[in-house]
Amino acid sequence: MNRLDATFARLKAEGEKALIAYIMAGDPSLHETEQLVLELERAGADIIELGVPFSDPIADGPVIQQAAERALRSGTSLKKILATVALLRARTQVPLVLMTYYNSIHAFGGAHFCREAARTGVDGLIVPDMPPEEAGTLETEAAGAGLDIIYLLAPTSTPDRCAMVARRSRGFLYYVSLTGITGATLTDWGGVRQNVEKIRKASAVPVAVGFGVATPDDASKVGDIADGVIVGSAIVRRIGDHQQDARMAEQVGQFVRSLKAALPRRAVA
Fold first, then answer.
1. 224 a catalytic residue
2. I need a surface site. Which of 18, 35, 223, 232 has the fewest CB within 10 A?
3. Looking at residue 173, which CATH number applies to its domain?
4. For 203-229, what is the mean pLDDT?
């Protein structure tokens, strides 16, 4: 059982929901990314997504776009991110997922990238601009290396598409709670619940919800609906606000701790 599957199995057995925390690798530096990952794990993050900075992040709002710009200015590259993952694996076994646009994978070389990502300790990939209809080659390369491909579904996804994505997603399925970019505000809680329930009927993998989750109250509501709660912009915003603060990681950790504490728990017999 890989780290992602083991984490969701453990949480289910303990009556807990997964907190999935997103940060931009290299923001403000890769050394600080390493420290942030360790602090996020201590604060209760069950899975950590590492964004790969890209010059044209079409799915991202201004907060994450600015983080990508800071990371690129600090000299961050995909090769250096993988080296950071290797360093982290000497200190933690928290599941690590790379969220990257396909251009970065293509430039690296798909098969070579998947082998190197798995070798350094990456557990899964989220590629927001790679729809499953076009991802056959990447799926084969990732499966050969032992990486999970995590696909996204949106409120506009048709029933047939939901069924197809549910069959092909590994690790977990990422439900984008609203149409728009990261950092937008989530208001249609009833719609999220209805769509997640539909996805669960088709999916054998856990369903995690992201986009629009900004507060502990948001996390509590999403945790009542889904298997996992994904928080990105709200964490990245705090990194940006405190990047000149020597206690930046601690400040971010306090916020993540409040998110984890807000997640619903059920009694286990």
1. no
2. 35
3. 3.20.20.70
4. 94
